Amino acid sequence: MLKLLKNFVLSTVLLIATATTAAADDVTYDQILANPDDLELNYLYAQQQVIKGDLEQASAALERLLLLQPNWDSARLFYALVLYRLDDMAGAKRELTILSDRPLSPSQSREVNRYLALATAQSKATRLTGRIATGLRVDSNPDLTTNSDNDLNGNPLDTDKRVDGAFQAGATARIEHDIPGGGGNFLFVQGATDLNEQFKVDEADYITGGVKAGATFFFEDLQITPYGTVDTLWLDGQNYRNDNGGGATAKYAINPQLTVFAGGKGVFQNYQIVSTDSVGSARNGWLARATGGVTVRPTEKSRFTARVSGSFKDARNDSYSYDALEIAANALVLIGQGQYVLASASYRWQDYEQPDPNYSATVTREDRRFKTRLAYGAPLDLLLEKVNITGSEVTSNVNLQVGVNYLNQNSNIPNFDADSVSADIMLIKRFAN
């Protein structure tokens, strides 16, 4: 894990160093004043200002450029995206509408259609956004069968791992409504659900669902979001757990490249007895979680987030009460034409308060879990173009994503030693209205 974190930090430093080195050769504003009609110089200056996070200067440079060369479509698209990032939805819609009637490349047309829909939605007082995903997954050990041959008492354990496939689906929807008075404050309600239906290993089947409602308030560079939440989890067709509670998050933008965040959440967890778990209400109790971290954007095409979270469970039976600490990092890198790479890793320490007599009368359980994921995604229309198939309205705003995952859990109770490798392929459709 230390090696992984070292590589993550090193990659971030290298990206920042690259951006800093490039800045040494930046076009200066004095050069722009001396050569106001140099189109390439203005375009390069705009690109460099975006990398620096100075979107206002980039916008001004592109506006000058388009006055001199109004038919430069790629520059106008760039201008529209800068206006979108500046939250100037009216300006972005104006430029994108002009481009919608221009003879663009397929990739440019996709960008125009995507951001025109987003800008139209964002300019409304009430907005609906969401996504629908469906796909398949194969897992080497979906129910996390133990790696150990014997338990603490030397009794044999079932180590018959079963490779299995699954159908996966998920959906999210979010409604936002602006609070009168300006300032960008808004109310929101969002819902999410996920389904995992195994082909053979029924005990790994699950359905989750949840609703979250709250408000977001802006105080210059500070953003605060209080919320309430309701969640449910069903295992193999049986209601296993219901959570009710709320929390709040805060984000502070130190500069366009660096944001810090923190949050806290508390929920009461109500467990039911199911065929795969007969413990039931002994697990009931409050779960509190606190999180803090940082998001870095070295360039407009990359984002890195690192966080630390602490969880504290107070169950009715102390055998199920625990403290946990988790460190996690994730990265998003855009690689052109709507393609992207996602990477994430986490390490979790979880220590229980008292021994569980089902496994030992004297040994208190301690778990260590490592998870990592790598995924690649691309617009479906882009992939269809490569095999000479023209996209349609149905395939627009749809991404094809493939990913691989690894999980390893070590415990001082051998019953809980397990690992798995899995892979998935998903179609993800995003919408905005």
Protein described:
The chain is α+β, with helices and mostly antiparallel strands and 433 residues long. It has eight helices and 14 strands. It has helices at residues 2-23, 29-34, 39-52, 55-68, 73-85, 89-99, 106-122, 380-386, and strands at 126-139, 164-178, 186-198, 206-219, 222-235, 238-255, 258-271, 285-299, 302-315, 322-336, 339-352, 366-379, 398-411, 418-432. It has a 14-stranded antiparallel barrel, surrounded by four helices. The longest helix has 22 residues, at 2-23. Residues 142-153 have a biased composition (Polar residues). Keywords: Signal.
**What is the H level of CATH, i.e. the homologous superfamily of the largest domain?**
monomeric porin ompg
| Largest sheet geometry | 14 strands, antiparallel, barrel
Order of secondary-structure elements: HHHHHHHEEEEEEEEEEEEHEE
CATH class assignment of the largest domain:
Mainly Beta
Question: Average pLDDT, to the nearest integer?
Answer: 87
The total count of strands amounts to 14
| Class from helix and strand fractions | alpha+beta
Low-confidence residue ranges: 1-24
- The number of distinct structural domains comes to 2
The radius of gyration computed from the alpha-carbon positions, rounded to a whole number of angstroms, is 25 Å
Oligomer: single chain
Widest sheet, order of strands: 1-2-3-4-5-6-7-8-9-10-11-12-13-14
Helix content: 10-25%
CATH architecture of the largest domain: Beta Barrel
The CATH topology of the largest domain, please? Porin
Keywords: Signal
Protein name: Tetratricopeptide repeat-containing protein
InterPro entries: TPR-like_helical_dom_sf
